[in-house]
Amino acid sequence: MKNNIFKIILSAVIYLGFHSFGTAQVLPVDDFEKKYSESPQAQLIDVRTSGEYGGGHLPKAQNMDVRSADFQQKIQSLDKTKPLFVYCLSGGRSAAASEILRKNGFTQVYDLQGGYLKWTSKNKPVENTQAQTNTKEISEAELNTILQKHPLVILDFFAPWCGPCVKMMPAVEKLSEEFKGKVLFLKVDADANRSIMAQYHIDEIPTFLVFKNGKQQMRSIGYQEEKALKEMITKYQ
Predict the structure, then answer these.
(1) What is the pLDDT of residues 17-70, one digit of tens each?
(2) Lesser CB count within 10 Å: N end or C end of the chain?
(3) Is the dihedral of CA 84, 87, 91, 94 positive or negative?
(4) What angle do CA 138, 192, 188 make, to 5 degrees?
(5) Active site amino acids
(6) Model pTM?
């Protein structure tokens, strides 16, 4: 009887040990930052594309695109005995990367919940940000004035490194011209306007916020075809 109990306890310990060390821990921004700062031998990888990485990244992060053919080859240069911190844009790719890392023998993996967008929306430190030269930081007072002055305003939260944002630009510019005088499209650069990102809880781009007479009416997240954007406009005219 005692032997059976011992075997059950031993099996449970082995299972829990494997489970706790064999899977990545997903940490909210503040916990991720704290854990990373407390780990002097920590390794930090950005698993986005090189274009996204070039538009801004967490300090000292290495770029290893999880979708590249040589990702598994690149991670072999990392030390499996040291903590590994992983992030992407919003959490999807880092989850996939964490699974690959786990299968390749990395036992201390920490995944940033919400990714780079959540990190920047909380005004955490980044480096190499490259906001577009024709964009600027918009103060809360300036934004409030714009929202009160124009009856229909669409805030377009974007970034120059965001593929879907760039893809949508021609449609946005076309509709902005078509509805000129009736609708104001205001582009909000995510890198240059982190305080506004936080104010409106923007953790994914592209995101569109529609304001009518100064009050928010709707939120649209992700890539939108021109037809869908036009329907969004006409609904609130």
Answers:
(1) 444 445 679 999 999 999 999 999 999 999 998 878 887 899 999 999 999 999
(2) N
(3) negative
(4) 60
(5) 162, 165
(6) 0.60
